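thought: fold this chain, then report.
action: predict
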Amino acid sequence: MTVRQFDVVVLGSGPGGEGASMKAVKSGRRVCTVEQSPFVGGACTHTATIPSKALRHAVQRLVDVQGDHPELRAELARTTTLKDMLRAASSVVSRQVQLRSTFYERNRVDLVVGRARFLDAQTVEVAEPRGSHELLSAKAFVIATGSHPYRPTGVDFSHPRIFDSDTILTLREAPLTMIIYGAGVIGCEYASMFRMLGVKVDLVNTRDRLLSFLDDEISDALSYHLREQGVLIRHQEEMEQVEARDDGVVLHLKSGKQLKADTFLWANGRTGNSAGLGLESLGIAMDSRGCIQVNDAYQTAVPHIYAVGDVVGAPSLASASYDQGRFAATHIVEGRLEHKLVKDIPTGIYTSPEISSLGRTERELTKAGVPYEVGHAFFKSLARAQITGRTVGMLKLLFHRQTRELLGIHCFGDNASEIIHIGQAIMAQDGPGNSIDYFINTTFNYPTMAEAYRVAALNGLNRLF
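observation:
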């Protein structure tokens, strides 16, 4: 069998694979991307980020229209179905696939459809859908195969009332009640989304607080507003058994509690797509969740084989995956580490309202003994928020008391994932360029949400003495 030769072979066409492929090919390397699906984009485009956020937007628009036109509320609720909103999400997916396909065509990246497996450290075999096989050899490889929802044994995911974060998008009608097991980012996002649709939601959290990696004040705000919306949050609970019945699903908890709902959504973790790649024979290690072990350069135990994105674990963000792919490709083609690509990546959590954060939390700064101060801007006091009616939320800035260096940005509220980037630009500056003084010495359009930075900066500086 003929072996096709490349400089770089990338496994996967999600954000990590795309980032690696485009950086390598634009650097003059001959690149081949292997994708097991007939369509590029990976889980991000087809089952995770894009469809779920498009669905959230459709749900939010329906809720907004109902609020603005109470006389139409009953009619809108009756005539607008979950199926309609999922159809709108599907159209976004199609446009994304079409766009991303042109990237590979325009840059002359060879695209091979099939499942890849390493035969040795220099060669992968691709099993194509029609049964044929192709051999690809390269000087370097980037594994960007992504992840899928973790499925524990004992839970019957074939039952029509039991879903994971992939299959939940196949729902056609909103249930009356839902149990969501797992209160991480995915669990909180779906709890918020389905509650907006009027579904009675039980959110079961295995930990003692929601999203403990967030600043405590933001985590507390999320808990408050989810409860305010009607989500019942149950902390520090563990599953004992999931009992599927014809009329619903019963969740048996180790605490002795039993919960019953029309549907059950498992949202407790994801598993790296590393099985079947033949990595074990190369001495490449994986953890219990299938995540590939890498060093600071995203190299595996075999130096010319890299791994990026969800298949290496946290932070498991599409934005982070893309930059990790570019980072790995930069190391391949230039031999250098461009740390700025993978440093200080903001979180984006699409609950309602949104959450976004960057940098350190109060808890982390206190533990490290850093003398910091806090500045707040509450959205309810901003003219733009009052105009739009989006008054829930706040911007919180953490800065060094002596140097005034911006140390952390935490935002909760409408468009938080957009608002964060203004502060991100300042935090990325070296030396004196990173200063909270920028926000009081710069004119912001009025009325805007960006003005929150000026308000928060003045609020914090007023606490200095």
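thought: worth noting. The chain is about 35% helix and 25% strand.
final: tokens above.
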